[in-house]
Amino acid sequence: MDAEAAKFIGAGIATLGMAGAAPGVSNIFSNFLSGALRNPSAAPSQTGNLIFGMAMTEALGIFSFLVALILLFVA
Amino acid sequence: MVTQAYAQEAAAPAEEHVDGAVDATHADPAHADPTADTHATTEAHGGEHGSDIFPPFDPATFPSQLLWLAISFAALYLLMSKVALPRVGSILADRKAKIDADSAAADASRQKTDAAIAAYEAAPADAKSKAQGIAAQTSDAIKTELASKRRAVEADLSAKVATAEARIATTKAEAMTHVDEIAAETAQTVVTQLVGDIPSDSVKAAVAKASKE
Amino acid sequence: MAGTDPIHQFVIEDMIPIHVGGDGTAGSGLNLSFTNSSLFMVLTVLAITTFVLLASSRKQLVPSRLQLTGELAYEFVANMLRSSAGTEGMKFFPFVFSLFAFVLTANLFGMIPYFFTVTSHIIVTVALALLVMSVVVIYGFFRHGFKFLKLFVPSGVPAYVLPIVVPIEIISFLSRPISLSVRLFGNISAGHITLKVFAGFIVSPGAAGFLGWLGAILPLFMTVALTALEFLVAAVQAYVFAVLTSMYLNDAVHPSH
């Protein structure tokens, strides 16, 4: 197999890392929603933490995208 | 497009990697695909003409970016820390001082108002207790007066009753003394009618004797 | 597809060439040219400075809209830093505010069509992250001396676990600048590539004639939605960058956690 083709395959496989970020982000939002419905008065004060957690989790998905980029362009 | 560009880069030796990128950086739009729009975002990045590296990973652009980032960020930091932020901070501090002073003044006036309200509420209470005192005094006075009057009347009445009783007793006693005379006269008359004349003294003695029995 | 290359938006072009050293041939020496990236860095700084100076120009007791916006930005960053690093950390307020304003403005400038996104280049985010970490390390040693190294020794951990915990702490500390920079770079560049790819889907069906143009409506809506998402990401990533900076500064101020 051509080394070129292996890089593309590797980049494609690297995008599977996003499958891990998806449950992470959905977990954050679903737990926030269920908590917010139980205690709506406390929800606005936690929006900052929600966004923060979302960004931290989402970044892990972005890292897999970065790996794909590096495979395509740098490696 | 990436594929072709990449293939070209992969074919190039590692040394020329950087140089080729620099060429790409310096490439003017004429270097680009002539069919492409020359606008910044829609223009082709050269296609197979040599821009063969993902631009953010192109080390040839690093010194320029670092230099200008350092210059602009240092300028921003100096402007913010020396000029801009102290101004915003002083506005906020002024407002906070003003609000604090105002709320302290408001607090003082509220305490004054509380004192006035307390004084205002104390006055009716005073008057009320005074009025109650007066009422109690008056009712006491009236009660004692009534009692003394009643006592006087009662004393008067009992004195009258006593004199009346005394008079009744004398009248009765007087009447009792007359009873003997009447009886003697009656008896004398009866005896005179029956027997004839008899001395009234003997009649009286006999009546007295009979009434004693 | 020539007009819709998603990578082209990141290309840096010289505007005022400045070359240091080298033998005059292309590619030799240091290229310190004033580029489109430099232009937008300068524009970002100018925009922030103009905004803050205008907002604080009249010093009204009851703020105007502009002044209120400036005060909100000030208090937002101040509260964020105070809640993370305490009052002692407030001496870094100008630094954190500059970082937050720079990243936010650069991200938002990037959302304007034809504008260059400064933060979509990894060297910029790496430089900012290394700046943060060097401030943390230098201030930590300056303030606490070698007690700063307590940062790597969590309190209340039994001694026999320390050989495992300390390397983990050191690795996590060393990975901070990497994750801090790559998070910002990845989010911004990935978002812009995605946006450009979907925008390309609007144009390319046009080749199929009228039906193709009808079919282009779907990716148009998708692009609108993605643009909204990217605005959110632009703001959130600036916020996250500033929050993480505050947390790391907290380590410098209070190393024994």
Largest interface: B-C, 60 and 67 residues
Provide the residue-averaged pLDDT of chain B: 77
Helix and strand element order of chain B: HHHH
Largest sheet of chain C: 2 strands, antiparallel
- List segments of chain C where confidence is low: pLDDT < 50 over at least 5 consecutive residues: none
Number of strands of chain B: 0
Low-confidence stretches of chain B: 1-51
What's the shape of chain C?
globular
Q: What level of helicity do the residues of chain C show? A: 55-70%
Give the percentage of residues in beta strands of chain B. under 5%
β content of chain C, as a range? under 5%
Terminal Cα span of chain B: 173 Å
Q: Which structural class best describes the helix and strand composition of chain C?
A: mainly alpha
Total domain count of chain C: 1
Number of helices of chain B: 4
As an assembly, this protein is heterotrimer
Task: Sum this structure up briefly.
By secondary structure, chain A is mainly alpha-helical.
Topology, please?
The complex is a heterotrimer of chains A (75), B (213) and C (257).
Chain A: H1 3-14, H2 18-38, H3 47-73
Helix pairs in contact in A: 1-3, 2-3
Chain B: H1 2-11, H2 14-26, H3 62-194, H4 200-212
Helix pairs in contact in B: 3-4
Chain C: E1 14-16, E2 19-20, E3 30-31, E4 34-35, H1 36-55, H2 65-85, H3 93-110, H4 122-144, H5 162-203, H6 210-215, H7 217-253
Question: How would you characterize this protein structure?
Answer:
The complex is a heterotrimer of chains A (75), B (213) and C (257). Chain A has 75 residues and is mainly alpha-helical. Chain A has one domain: F1FO ATP Synthase, CATH 1.20.20. Chain A is 80% helix and 0% strand. In chain A, helix 1 (3-14) packs antiparallel against helix 3 and helix 2 (18-38) runs antiparallel to helix 3. Chain B has a domain at 1-57. Chain B contains four helices and no strands. Chain B is rod-shaped. The N and C termini of chain B lie far apart (173 Å). Chain C is mainly alpha-helical and 257 residues long. Chain C has one domain (2-253). Chain C has helices at residues 36-55, 65-85, 93-110, 122-144, 162-203, 210-215, 217-253, and strands at residues 14-16, 19-20, 30-31, 34-35. In chain C, helix 1 (36-55) packs across helix 3 (93-110), helix 2 crosses helix 7 and helix 4 packs antiparallel against helix 5. Chains in contact: A-B, A-C, B-C. The A-C interface holds A 51-52, 54-56, 58-59, 62-63, 65-66, 69 and C 179, 182-183, 185-187, 189-190, 236-237, 239-240, 243.
